[in-house]
From TrEMBL:
Entries under InterPro entries matching the protein: ACAD10-like, ACAD10_11_N, Aminoglycoside_PTrfase, Kinase-like_dom_sf
SUPFAM superfamilies: Protein kinase-like (PK-like)
Species this chain originates from: Primorskyibacter flagellatus
Protein name, as recorded: Predicted kinase, aminoglycoside phosphotransferase (APT) family
Domain Aminoglycoside phosphotransferase: 25-249
GO MF entries: kinase activity
Gene3D superfamilies documented for this protein: 3.90.1200.10, Phosphorylase Kinase, domain 1 (3.30.200.20)
Keywords assigned by UniProt, alphabetized: Kinase, Transferase
PANTHER family, per the entry: AMINOGLYCOSIDE PHOSPHOTRANSFERASE DOMAIN-CONTAINING PROTEIN, HYDROLASE, PUTATIVE (AFU_ORTHOLOGUE AFUA_1G12880)-RELATED
Length: 338
């Protein structure tokens, strides 16, 4: 963000954010591949700004106005979110729609093995992650004013169609495994069981902020993919992430001795979630995990395409993430076979 943009944001905040007092300094976060995110510091305190990226965008992508709406709706719920301060729909201010929210202090974990905490605290962190996931799916969407936040009908049929279209629009070369995965999902769609809840869409440990010295979640971040849909998509997204290799790139738990680390198995995590939501069991889990791999592959393909087009927030990282698409498609097929 250059000086002209910074000054424009400061002038806009002076008119639209209660109590704001400049001058303003800006630092771009390395995270936020989809919607560029900035830390703003001023005399009146610290803020966070999220904006749409520049360039030509895929239809319905980067909906920062939806992020703003859902987090504002959750402000008095059991789901911890930052306080929303103002939404700017006037693209002349910064060249794109953006919103400003409070800056929440906390610690984030990129690695689900949680190497810097004790085994006891590891279990508490994952248990809290489970609790908040169940809380998201227990939100009364009518009372929260979110009943129209997603269309009626089969969530998986709708999402499969949407992300297949997005994938095709950002395709950069043939990938037979992705074609096979899409075909399998199309022929194995589960019947609509009537569950219709708020879903986060990208629920994973690195989108959560925890208290500095404890295991409580202070904020759930990155609501870009949120909608009204089927809760098992979020649950499967957690399990999907854990099937990836451990370390800074995969950020998974594949091959890890979870018991020694104090981490739950997939089955234990699912059982705790079911207990919290009053569900006896989850059938057809392989489909949900396969779908999670498919959707993430489609998302990463879009990240790669933006990098190639020169519109990525962090081009080098975006190209690196795009390189994982074939592996996600392969893992999706493996999940489909379970």
């Amino acid at each position: 963000m250059d000086k002209v943009e910074r000054d424009a944001v400061a002038q806009w905040m002076a008119k639209n954010v209660d109590g704001f007092r400049g001058p303003l300094t800006v630092r771009k976060f390395d995270v936020g591949q989809s919607n560029p995110t900035y830390l703003l510091r001023a005399e009146s305190g610290a803020y966070v700004l999220r904006r749409k990226p520049p360039g030509v965008l895929l239809k319905s992508a980067h909906a920062v106005d939806r992020e703003f709406r859902v987090q504002r709706a959750l402000s008095d719920s059991d789901v911890p979110v930052p306080r929303m301060l103002a939404l700017c729909e006037d693209e002349s201010v910064l060249g794109a729609m953006f919103y400003v929210m409070e800056h929440v202090e906390g610690r984030s974990f990129l690695d689900p093995t949680l190497p810097d905490v004790s085994p006891t605290q590891r279990g508490a962190v994952i248990n809290e992650m489970n609790r908040v996931l169940a809380a998201i799916h227990s939100v009364d969407i009518v009372a929260a004013g979110l009943a129209d936040y997603g269309p009626e009908g089969s969530y998986y049929a709708r999402q499969l169609g949407r992300w297949t279209k997005q994938y095709r629009a950002s395709e950069t070369g043939p990938l037979p495994d992705m074609d096979r995965l899409i075909s399998w999902l199309e022929t194995h769609l589960p019947p609509d069981d009537g569950q219709r809840t708020l879903v986060h869409g990208d629920y994973r440990i690195d989108n959560l902020l925890f208290t500095k010295d404890g295991s409580d979640i202070r904020a759930v971040l990155d609501w870009e993919l949120s909608t009204i849909g089927h809760p098992f998509a979020d649950l499967a997204g957690v399990l999907m992430q854990w099937q990836l290799p451990p370390g800074p790139e995969g950020r998974g738990l594949a091959g890890v001795d979870r018991e020694a680390l104090g981490l739950p198995t997939d089955a234990e995590f699912v059982a705790d979630y079911c207990q919290r939501r009053g569900i006896d069991r989850i059938d057809n889990l392989g489909f949900y995990v396969a779908f999670a791999f498919f959707r993430m592959a489609a998302i990463l393909q879009g990240v790669k395409k933006r990098a190639l087009d020169g519109n990525a927030s962090n081009p080098d990282k975006a190209l690196k993430l795009g390189g994982f698409v074939p592996r996600f498609a392969e893992l999706g097929l493996e999940a489909a076979a379970t």
